[in-house]
Design a protein that fits this description.
Blueprint: E1 2-6, H1 13-16, H2 19-22, H3 28-47, E2 55-62, E3 66-67, E4 72-73, H4 79-90, E5 93-96, E6 106-113, E7 117-119, H5 121-131, E8 138-143, E9 150-155, H6 161-173, E10 180-185, H7 194-203, E11 207-209, H8 210-213, E12 230-235, E13 242-247, H9 249-252, E14 261-266, H10 269-274
Parallel strand pairs: 1-2, 9-10
Antiparallel strand pairs: 1-14, 2-6, 3-4, 5-6, 7-8, 8-9, 10-12, 11-12, 13-14
Length: about 280
C-alpha cells in the first residue's frame, strides 16, 4: 500500500507559527500542546504502515521556524520535527527526509517499516542540481534490494513551471522497466493555469492520472477548497495493476489536515478478473 497525505504542518498552523511553540523548547506547556496535536497524527501513521511493503509519503511536515527579526531560519529543527522522528524510530519505522534539503518551513518525507525502502539512486544523483531551492518538496524511494518500484512524493508549488520542468527531467532519467508513482499535492485544479499545462506535459511522458483512469470523478474533492489537488500519476503500462481510493474522514471528520489521504493498492487477481 502506498499512501500520500499532506499534513499541512499538522494542521494547527496558527500554533506552529508561534516561535515559542514551533522551535525546540524546554517549556512543558509547549511539549504538552505538541503531544496533544501529534497523537492522532501518529495513530494515522500506524494505520498506513501495517505491512512490510507499505510506504507513507507526508507533505508539509514542519521543519524550521523563520525568525522575522533575524531574517533567517532557526538553527535547529522544530519540536514537532524532533517528535515525529522519535516516534517513528521508537515504533521501528524508518523516516527519510529530502536529500540535502535547504532550510524551509516544511518537508516532504517518506515513512516505512525499518529496512524496507531506501533513497532512489536516480533521485540522489539529480535532485540537488535539478530542484535546487525546491529540494525540500520532493522525496523518492525504492524497494531495498529488489528495487522493483519507485515512489516519488511531491509537493508542487503554485504557478511552478520550474518544478514541473525539473520533474520531467528527473523522470527521463528513471529506469523504464519498473512502475513509478508520482504522488502528492500538485496544487493543480483550475483550467488554463501554468500548473495544469505543465501537468499535462508531464503526463505526456508516459504517465496517467490513476484517479481518472479508475473512473473516479474530478469533482470528488481532496482539499478543503472543494477541489481535487492531490494526485497519483503512474507509468501508463502499470496503471491497470493498481486501485486508488481517498480517505476523506481524516479531513472532513477528524480535521487532522485540510487534505484527504490518497491510498494506492495493488489489485488482487480477483479484482483483475472481475474488472472491479
Amino acid at each position: 500500500m502506498i499512501t500520500s497525505w499532506n499534513v499541512n504542518r499538522f494542521w494547527k498552523a496558527d500554533k506552529w507559527k508561534s516561535k515559542d511553540f514551533y522551535t525546540s523548547s524546554k517549556d512543558n506547556t509547549n511539549k504538552k500542546m505538541s503531544d496533544e496535536f501529534l497523537k492522532p497524527i501518529f495513530t494515522q501513521i500506524d494505520k498506513y504502515l501495517q505491512n512490510d511493503d507499505d510506504v507513507l509519503i507526508l507533505q508539509e511536515v514542519p521543519y524550521k521556524f523563520f525568525d522575522n527579526d533575524k531574517k533567517k531560519f532557526e538553527e535547529n529543527p522544530c519540536l514537532a520535527h524532533e517528535k515525529i522522528k522519535k516516534y517513528c524510530y521508537g515504533k521501528g519505522y524508518d523516516i527519510l527526509f529530502p536529500f540535502k534539503s535547504p532550510d524551509s518551513y516544511s518537508q516532504t518525507v517518506a515513512v516505512f517499516k525499518k529496512g524496507q525502502y531506501d533513497y532512489d539512486e536516480t533521485y540522489l544523483e539529480y535532485v540537488e542540481g535539478k530542484f535546487k531551492k525546491y529540494r525540500n518538496k520532493i522525496i523518492a524511494v525504492c524497494k531495498k534490494g529488489k528495487k522493483d518500484l519507485r515512489v516519488v512524493g511531491v509537493h508542487i508549488p503554485m504557478n511552478s513551471a520550474e518544478f514541473y520542468d525539473s520533474l520531467i527531467a528527473l523522470h527521463r532519467k528513471m529506469p523504464e522497466d519498473i512502475p513509478i508513482f508520482y504522488i502528492g499535492d500538485y496544487n493543480t485544479f483550475d483550467a488554463n493555469t501554468v500548473n495544469e499545462r505543465k501537468m499535462f506535459a508531464f503526463m505526456s511522458e508516459g504517465l496517467v492520472d490513476l484517479w481518472l483512469k479508475s473512473g473516479k470523478s474530478q469533482k470528488e474533492a481532496t482539499f478543503n477548497a472543494n477541489t481535487r489537488i492531490d494526485y497519483a500519476l503512474i507509468t501508463e503500462k502499470d496503471a491497470d495493476k493498481y486501485e486508488i481510493t481517498a480517505y476523506h474522514d481524516i479531513r472532513t471528520k477528524d480535521k487532522l489536515s485540510d487534505h484527504s489521504a490518497i491510498i494506492l493498492k495493488e489489485r488482487t487477481p480477483e479484482m483483475k478478473k472481475t474488472g472491479d
